[in-house]
Amino acid sequence: MIDLDDISFTPAGSDEPILRHVSLAIEQGERVGIVGPSGSGKSTLGYHLCGAHHLALAGVTTGHLYLDGQDCLAGGPPGFAGLVGQNPEAQLFCRTIQEEVLLGPRMRGENEQVCRDRVRSLLDRHNLFSRAEDVVASLSLGQKQLTATLSMLAIEPKVLLLDEPTSYLDTATANRLFAHLDTLSRDDGWIVLIIEHDLKRLAGFADRFLTIVDGLLQSDGSLDLASAASHPGRSHPAAVFPRPDAAPLLTFEDVSFHYGKGPTALDNINLTLRPGECVALMGPNGSGKSTMLRLAKGLAKPSSGRIDLASGLEMARDVGLMLQNPEEQIFAHTVEAECGYWLQNLGVPPEVRSGRIRDILFPLGLGTMLTRAPFSLSFGEKRRLCLAATLVADPTVLCLDEPTTGLDDDNMEIMAAMVRDRAASGKAVLVATHEDAFAAMVATRIVRIEAGRIVADGPAVGELS
Amino acid sequence: MTRMLREANALSKCLFAVSLCAYAFLCSDWRVLVAYVLLLLALLAMTAEFDRILLLAVGVFFAGLPVLLTLFILGGIEKAATWQDGVWLGLTWLGIFFLRLLIMVLADLLVVKLTSFSNMILSLRSLRLPGRLVLFVSALVSMLPNIFGMALRVIEVQRCRGFVAKKLINPKNFLPLFIPVFLAQMRRSADLALSLELRGVNGATYGRGGCLHLGWGDGVFVAAALLLWIGPFQWSLVLQ
Amino acid sequence: MQVLKLRELSTAQVVFFASVVALDFGWGLVFKTALQLTAIHEVARLEMIVSIMLMVILRLMLDRFGTLILYELTWGLLAAVLMPAAGGQPGFLKLVPALSQGIVFDLLFSLLQQSLPRARAYVAILIGGLLGPTLAVFVRVAMGLPWATATQTLFAISLLTSLVINGFGVYLGLVVWKRIAPLQLVAMLRLPCP
Predict the structure, then answer these.
(1) Which pTM value belongs to this model?
(2) Which of A43, A86, A91 is the best mutation test for B, with the most CBs of B within 10 A?
(3) What is the ipTM of this complex?
(4) Nearest C-alpha neighbor of A160 from the set A180, A181, A146
């Protein structure tokens, strides 16, 4: 069904190919996982396997690409493939869930009743039928991701590419989705391609793995989960640095918060952060983790209760917050300028700024990229730059919101090392994360939040086991 | 009756609004203008939709009044022999100006309140406009609600790094807000376009379908648009 | 002079174009209205800096005659629908200054493409940007605003501030263009240079 022969892709304006001499064949009904470090070319390969490269990329593809027996080097046939990207919100176009899922079948000119029956069946299967008339803008991220996925299932493609398909889904919904995909591939012969960082989940679904490193197809076959699991960083226990007798640096006292007239986002939160601690806030999407971090930074005020910092500390200067998406932050012409933005706003003189920037960038592996345009960095490098841009002001309390989303193991390890160093130097760290592995690497304490309330608060060792 | 007017084609509603605005431009009789204002207010009240846009429009409209008052009074004083006559002259001019302005704003609001977005798209498609143009309008409306939220998120991200609004006095400080939002929009556009293309939605296919259906409501709007200029209403223009 | 042909645009370019208009509008929706509540807006359209930046970048990406005309037309229609009382011109009258500006912008951008590839942005926006306030006042005078000293003074101030603000907008737009032009995303969305 899919036949790649010596495929290379060179992006526009560059001489270096980002996909090099890839040859492989995929048959009907195969379930394939695409894995590899950040920036290795996974998505690029995925687009080529779908025949969507001419739509998604600007550059030159060489080699031979056959889809369903046809030469598709210039692009795949219409309706051949479906694709759900990392940002599901961006893919939604219509007003309601039903309209969104109906769009594809309707555009193909199918009978209206047939379209509606198929969509009803899809929505019903994924417990969305009762919400068919809900406005898409009001959905949670997970529901949007599911809607985007169903809108592609509705067109019944021969190949389906899913990029991090469960990043916003809860476990039950994700399991249902994978069960459905399993049926589609076994019974209807769909090829399902999944790009996913969660190798354990992927291993439960895919029966073939393509490992891409630096644009080259490093391996094609089964995945050695054991060696992946024994990555040194992942088993490294967090060193214990907390000072229980020291005065707290940050205190939440009976804090409640709600957005406007909406439901309560945080309910009666009591939390203390001491020097040397690294507290991981864990819980499902929408539980209030990010809200706590925003309040800690002073971006919003609690509806009731109080948030106190240790004497002499100010939220604007001594609390650093790195939010989830590095792409929403980067604007400067050089890495150095991007890193120094906070210092510039604090009025730090240029000569002092330069020294501090260099001191923070080198340990993060960005020291040789001072004059590079930050837009040209890989996702992992951008994430590290954002961390540097937060650490450069040496905040006493460091808050991180889902710092490992989209990161590969190496980048995660670098980030974890930095966080451990902060705690070791007597600062405090508050991390919102759903990644158990990262929490295991850095946390001295785990706080679990559900529906805006703290349901558990204990040492990391006990909580994670 | 409201239902009949709602179901009318968006094009006939726009025709009425444009005709009324043009008429208001030319008419100087305050009695006629007041009559039309009252008529538009009554129609607007029948829609019973008093949402944020309406309140905002009314608020902004009246908020601009003090400056207009100053300009008209100063202008009147300049033209008249005495300052008292000047004030009265200015207020008279302001009255006519204000009524014309009000008619245009109310006509605009009425069209918006009586037209759902899907009807507007259907009207465009019934005109057999190029599919890309229809896709353009649809994409515009689809993306508009998310812009504000995205911009707020970027502002929040930069606030974490010491950005404060008063720094915008130096326009260079627009860049930390502008660039991330602009790039995010570009990425969003590319992702949306890819999703649409894969589902068969592109400029060539999107314009297909839709026929121009005209009903009683369309008749009312077209008749009203024409009656403004002919028949007994023409006397108001003669009175100028 | 190469004219913008809709059939020449890919789906991504159409959606991108729409997103820039949406961005201009959404960004300014609150900003413009908030400024309207102060007297500053009568003389200085500060929010125009972002609009100008967007227009400059869009024109450089879709470098064809007609781009900014379509932009201004769409913007004017949106403004008439969503901000009927804001921006000085009521309702659909917003289209008058908007479209006129768009025509002048596009003409100058296209005519000076070979002779002043970068500076044409300054020429087009500064000259076209004078037309907007001029027509806006013309419309208001036609509606009954007295052409007296106070109005003339306000008009002169608005022209001067328009020049300054548009100048800043072009400068910043070109700064942004320099930073983003090498990106692959831009390469994908850009029309080939004529």
Answers:
(1) 0.86
(2) A91
(3) 0.88
(4) A181
